[in-house]
Amino acid sequence: IADEVSLSAGTIYESGKIENERGKDFRGSNEFRTNNSWQVGLTLNKGISKNLYFSAGLGFKHFDIINDISQSISFGNRRPKPGGMPFEHEFPFKLQCSAGSSDIVIRTEQLDQRVSYTDNQPIELKIQTEIELNYLTIPVGLQYRFLKNKFFAGAGLGLNIDILARSSASNPEVKLLNNILKPIEQPQLSKLGQTQEIVLNSRVNLIAGYTINKNFKIYLSPELYLPVSDRTNDRAGKIATNAFGIQAGLSYSLN
After folding, report:
1. What is the value of pTM for the model shown?
2. 34-70 pLDDT, tens per residue?
3. How far apart are CA 167 and CA 135, in angstroms?
4. How much helix, strand and coil, in percent to the nearest 5, is found in the chain?
5. Angle at Cα 62 formed by Cα 59 and Cα 63, nearest 5°?
């Protein structure tokens, strides 16, 4: 039987980059960051000793991830169009994000329809995509606390098991930078492929709080998350992630 139940909520921030490993001729950058991301959860704590607690719970996480890609591709990468307009060109492109990947087609036309370009002509792209992810999360871990009068502080170590409940993606916003081509329309995308259903993250946190009375405590907990697994099973790129958050909570003693 648990000694304490806690309700907490707070923000999450994540940023990082994807290093492309598909070829040495890749030129560009692929970075991501979160926007308006948060979590809420209920945790049960059981005292193992005077200062050590085991905790387990259930929560919900919402991530809004913005992916920014800057890349140079060659005009020769265009898809052949027998019988099509000679000044319209389609470029197949693999949209690689921290939460998955999908193949899209970038449809363009020449700004100057009289000019002919060689296959080596570089095309500079900027692509932004927004991904929304919702997870059910199961946190488990250990927490050590020490008390001084009504104040307490401590540190914890644990594992978050995140189970994907829903995912969606906005249509990519494509910009062509070197005044050679312009988009005819923006690519269509509703969901990324190759998204992992279960993601593991280790967690390190500090905690500081105040005992209001016999039953209630309030606390604040900054947290650092270290990915154990990626959100995508696409192995074409190496993902480097920085993730942290801060949670505020209320605990109720069951004893």
Report:
1. 0.89
2. 989 999 999 999 999 989 999 999 999 999 999 999 9
3. 9
4. 0, 70, 30
5. 135
